[in-house]
Amino acid sequence: MYLLWVTRIFFVLLAYLVGLGIKEAMPEEVGASYPFLMAALAVSLVILEIVFQRHYLRTLVAFFLGLLVGVGITFVIGALLKLLIAEPELQAYVSSRIVPIAGLFFTYLCVTIVLQTKDQFRFILPYVDFSKQGPPTGGYLLDTSAIIDGRIIEIHDSGVLNGSIIIPEFIVHELQEVADSADRIKRERGRRGLDLLKRLQENHASEIVVRPGNYPDIPDVDGKLIRVAQETDTRLVTTDSNLARVARVENVGVIDIRDLVCRLHLVINVGDEFAVELVRAGEAAGQAVGFLEDDTMVVVENAAAHIGTTMDVGVARILHTAGGRMVFAKPSHRQNNTADPAPKEKD
Question: Phi/psi of residue 249, each to 5°?
Answer without folding.
Answer: -60, -35
